[in-house]
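Below is a filled-in request sheet from our internal design queue. Each sheet records the structural input a requester submitted and the sequence that came back. We keep these sheets so that new team members can see what a complete request looks like end to end.

REQUESTER: design group, bay 2
PRIORITY: normal
MODE: inverse folding
CHAIN LENGTH: 85
BACKBONE (tokenized):
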């Protein structure tokens, strides 16, 4: 994990990590989520030199099937009377 002092990831640290990673992995498809650090221009340019970059779709609860199950589970648990945990 690439973490700064405040607990977040930085574009500079991600770039340094990817530079090492990409030297050993060329002609690959790199899939990233839409975290702001992944949108860093230097990071995108580095990946696109010898690889293909694809961003996942932005998070939507309805595209994640498990979310429906968790909603049903939470609803049922909230209706139940608990004597203790």
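RETURNED SEQUENCE:
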């Amino acid at each position: 994990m690439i973490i700064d002092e405040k607990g977040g990831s930085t574009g500079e640290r991600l770039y340094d990590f990817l530079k090492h990673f990409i030297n050993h992995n060329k002609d690959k498809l790199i899939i990233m989520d839409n975290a702001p650090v992944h949108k860093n221009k230097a990071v995108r340019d580095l990946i696109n030199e010898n690889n293909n970059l694809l961003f996942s779709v932005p998070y939507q609860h309805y595209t994640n099937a498990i979310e429906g199950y968790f909603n049903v589970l939470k609803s049922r648990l909230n209706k139940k009377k608990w004597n203790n945990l």
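SHEET NOTES:
- The two ends are 35 Å apart (CA to CA).
- The first strand starts at residue 29 and ends at 32.
FILED BY: M.R.
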